[in-house]
Amino acid sequence: MAKGKGSTPRTGEPRSGRPKSAKPDAGAVAESLLSLGSLLSLRAGDPALKKAGVEFRFEKESWVSRDEGPLRGPWVLTEVGVYAAGHEGYKQYAGELPRGITFESTREEVRKALGEPVESGGGNRFGALVFPEWDRYRVRKKYLVEFSYLPESNRVCTVSITTPQLADM
Asked: What is the reported pTM?
């Protein structure tokens, strides 16, 4: 999938910036997602990951460092995502999300728990396909945590973590 500057890595949709009104301390997200233990030894696409409600995304090192030319170098972990039950064929991630947020939480409840996001977007349509709306939060200046919401219920369907420079690709 093409990932252009100014678009979301998952959908290629344009991003819309939103001023940050509060600085949420969502460090528990990063710690929770990065404490996946033995799952880190599995390969991307392994069915055990879908059963655990987890997805790892990898890119070639040259892509991550924005080198021009052919893709080269080792694969680098660029994003970790966790899923709600049934979303994109995944089982529900059993770990904790921060500040009492669950996969039943609505966008309003996430914003109440974490404050105003630094970016929001999504909701675009392509025929019958509707892309989930999402909110991004900066965590400890090192990470961006994205909450995506189901179009029909506005409840959390995925939570992913990446670094800010990768989110801009």
From this structure: 0.69
